[in-house]
């Protein structure tokens, strides 16, 4: 039989692997690529512009931390009240009784109750005032002999009984100072010395007493320029130093009579309240109006009737506290 795997029926030899590869892939029997006809280049005018090179994407930036907030500027601390550096003195209680003044340790009297009423109104205005001026109280009278120093001293003692309150009784009657004599104490330097010499700290002249909460600033040495010293800018500096940073400190000024000397009118510019003391049945209406006009730099002037023998309402504290229980 004829071997069909080697010879076909026409007797031709079968195609080799190279020949079949040439027919399928264009390779000649020797494994070389056929030579293709040369293709003419594309004219420049017909060429498309080369695409712009694609820039690699930048790496995603890591999130930056938020800037730290600037630290808030701390507000300056409020000023601290100056401490009084004068000597500590003892007030003779018997001396107070002899002068008809309030004695802190004694039983409640009608006199104390009267000044409690007076101080309540003054304290209410002092605590609601928007400025330290309300805590500066001037005590004055139109004429001499109407009881201004007596009232100023009793008012200071009554106010000092308030818990947590500091009361500075300032003797501003430089012509005839009498506060220290009424309290039975002695002092040489005081308000006028601090006004005359800027090197003197006023708090170093304030006397501390053994009555809790009560301090005294004496009048100091008098001179022919006392009125000019009180009218200077130094007065505001001294008073501001005594009251700055001290919301529980009250200054009580005992001044000369308004119609007798000028210091009362000058100090009225530096206080928030004025207590005008008039004597019952003695002070004239004209004198009262003139004194009020001189103190008009103070916007709050109150009237205190001294030595009244009766009350329109029939109120008599002395008779109540003096009565014996049955």
How far apart are the first and last residues' alpha carbons, in Å?
168 Å
Rounded mean pLDDT score? 83
Low-confidence stretches: 1-10, 319-326
Instruction: State the CATH topology.
Output: Rossmann fold
Radius of gyration: 52 Å
Fourth-level CATH superfamily: P-loop containing nucleotide triphosphate hydrolases
> How many separate domains?
1
Number of helices: 11
Biggest sheet strand line-up:
1-4-5-3-6-2-7-8
The top level CATH class name = Alpha Beta
Strand tally, please? 8
Largest sheet: 8 strands, mixed
CATH architecture assignment name: 3-Layer(aba) Sandwich
Strand content: 5-15%
Overall outline: elongated
> Which class of secondary structure composition applies to the elements?
alpha/beta
Order of helices and strands: HEHHEHEHHEEHHEHEHEH
Query: Helix amount, in percent?
Result: 25-40%
